[in-house]
Amino acid sequence: MHRIGARASLDDVSEALTTIDGLAGWWTEDTHGDPGIDGVIKFRFAGAGGEGFDMKVLESKAGELVRWEVVDGPDEWIGTHVGFELSQVDDWAIVVFKHEGWKEPVEFMHHCSTKWASFLLSLKKYVETGKGDPSPNDVEISNWP
Q1: FRET pair for 140, CA 20 to 30 Å: which of 13, 26, 107, 114?
Q2: Taking the CB of residue 122, how many other CB atoms lie within 10 A of it?
Q3: CATH code of the domain occupying 2-129
Q4: What residues does each domain of the chain span?
Q5: Signed CA dihedral, 56, 13, 91, 128: sign only
Q6: How does 123-139 read in b/e, with b if 16+ C-beta sit within 10 Å?
Q7: Residue 49's pLDDT band (boundaries 50, 70, 90)?
Q8: What is the pLDDT of residue 109?
Q9: How far is CA 42 from CA 34, 94, 101, 105, 142, in A?
Q10: Tens-place pLDDT, residues 52-65
């Protein structure tokens, strides 16, 4: 779980979380699919040899909430849920992030938590400046087998 604030509108944050161009602007440039409810978005990462995750869109309420279910990817991720809860506090768009449903706290979970934190900072940068640090330009924290 993570929390960030960005000096941006909830509309800008929602667009970054619910459109293919927005997601490609902060998470991974290799993003495609259907970002609508029940659609599947495919995220691929150069640092992982083109491997990645397929996320089914469960909920998408502009300015409030985005929730996905992992339907393909590493075994540890299958069936987990990724969520972004949004709120406005003064000039800040607040994002409360959760990646829930891990079967057990394996080392890969800790690696992913750190990567999520770096990508959430990329999201912040993207909505504040128009340019994030998506894969393959993200912070390299370690190799992962």
Answers
A1: 13
A2: 23
A3: 3.30.530.20
A4: 2-129
A5: positive
A6: bbbbbeeeebbbbeebe
A7: confident
A8: 93
A9: 9, 25, 20, 25, 23
A10: 999 999 999 999 99
